[in-house]
Specification:
By secondary structure, the chain is mostly beta strands. The protein has 3 helices and 37 strands. The chain folds into 3 domains: about 55 residues, no CATH class; about 90 residues, no CATH class; about 200 residues, 3 Solenoid (Pectate Lyase C-like), CATH 2.160.20.10. It starts with a helix and ends with a strand.
């Protein structure tokens, strides 16, 4: 009997708590907000929080959402009034605004990258972050700025964002950090992405396409990791590290860019890890091709990368630089498979260099190379030999 009473009391408490919790959530402007983190779900921690509030064990948290235009008429007004931890939710529509952010820990969320558009005035930067930490921008498009998004001494997360039809797309400066996922930086007049002055970033599942200048440049002591991205049809270089910078790239497609697909220069370093395809680059720059390493720089190319069908050499190393070329495929490029010139060195380990328009390896003009593991130069019988032979004898 005692056991049944305990069970009854527990059930009464449970259903009473659920009823009270439901009532509190049904009040649109109530100060208890069940979905504290705005993820569209109420998890266990949020449920416990609501029950503690209902039992008087803790103070309720105020709503952390500002709706545009329902609560305030402009996005900038929402930014100005937002406190740390708040989310600004922007309804579908086009907003002709230039936004300035100089606070920490706020999220700006649209209704979708095709539905919510922030359109600048064509002269100023459309979104500027200054000394702002942990800013998240998601599910919207940024257009018509001198720069679409520009950061100074700030950290930014972009998710499901389009940055398009600006003069320059995304620029991170002065020790900024950018994380971008499922973000499209496209059709900007001058260039796509630039990280400089000690900035860093990580780009995953992004597309940097159709920009008039360089697709992605990292310069002046900056670094970036690019994973599973498409860098396509940009007017100049696909990806460039310049002036003491570092770029690593994996699982990406770097194709149809006017300059070199992957360019490492000015005392910089690069790493091409696994399953990158670098092809059909170099239409508009005479010395371009698949990968260029120059002016006291270093690049590691390993793990099933393919450097194929580029307009110049597959890999070109010059001006006192080093290429470390592992088990990759360098195939069917218009000129030599690998050029090594002007005090530069390459080492090969298990590399396949076949069917290129010049020599497989050309070390002439004061270059040198070392073979650490077998190099496959193809064969005439199989139709995969390099047009001028395996190695230029430099006679």
């Amino acid at each position: 009997m005692k056991k049944q009473s305990v069970i009854k009391m527990a059930l009464v408490f449970f259903f009473s708590s659920v009823l009270l919790f439901s009532c509190l959530l049904s009040e649109g402007n109530a100060f208890l907000k069940g979905d504290i983190n705005n993820d569209g779900k109420i998890d266990l921690a949020e449920s416990v929080n609501a029950l503690q509030v209902s039992a008087g064990l803790k103070t309720a948290q105020p709503s952390s959402v500002i709706n545009v235009p329902a609560d305030v008429s402009t996005i900038q007004e929402a930014i100005d009034t937002a406190s740390e931890g708040e989310t600004i939710i922007i309804a579908a529509g086009t907003y002709d605004e230039v936004l300035n952010i100089s606070k920490d820990n706020i999220s700006i969320q649209g209704a979708g990258k095709e539905s919510t558009i922030i359109r600048g005035n064509g002269t100023d930067r459309t979104i500027v972050l200054r000394n702002s930490r942990n800013i998240t921008i998601s599910s919207l498009a940024v257009q018509n700025g001198d720069i679409g998004i520009n950061t100074y001494y700030s950290s930014l997360v972009c998710f499901n964002v389009v940055i398009e039809n600006n003069y320059r797309g995304l620029r991170a400066r002065y020790n900024s950090y950018v994380t971008a996922e499922n973000t499209f930086i496209r059709n900007n007049t001058y260039g796509g992405v630039r990280l400089n002055n000690g900035s860093a970033g990580n780009f995953t599942d992004c597309e940097i396409t159709g920009n008039g200048g360089i697709g992605f440049v990292c310069d002046r002591s900056s670094s970036v990791s690019i994973e599973s991205c498409k860098v396509l049809s940009n007017g100049e270089h696909g990806i460039q590290a310049w002036l003491d910078s570092n770029v690593s790239c994996s699982g990406s497609e770097i194709k149809l860019n006017g300059g070199p697909g992957f360019d490492i220069s000015g005392n910089s370093s690069g790493q091409l890890f696994g399953a990158n395809v670098i092809s059909e680059n170099g239409d508009d720059i005479d010395w371009a091709g698949g990968v260029t390493i120059h002016h006291s720089s270093y690049c590691l190319i390993s793990d099933t990368n393919q450097i194929i069908d580029n307009r110049g050499a597959g890999v070109k190393i010059f001006n006192n630089s080093v290429g470390d070329i592992g088990p990759i495929l360098i195939h069917d490029n218009d000129e030599n498979g690998v050029n090594i010139q002007t005090g530069s060195v390459a080492q090969f380990d298990g590399t396949v260099i076949t069917k290129n328009g010049g020599y497989g390896i050309d070390p002439c003009w004061n270059g040198d190379y070392f073979v650490l593991g077998p190099v496959d130069f193809g064969s005439a019988a199989a139709g995969t030999a390099n047009t001028l032979g395996d190695v230029n004898p430099c006679e």
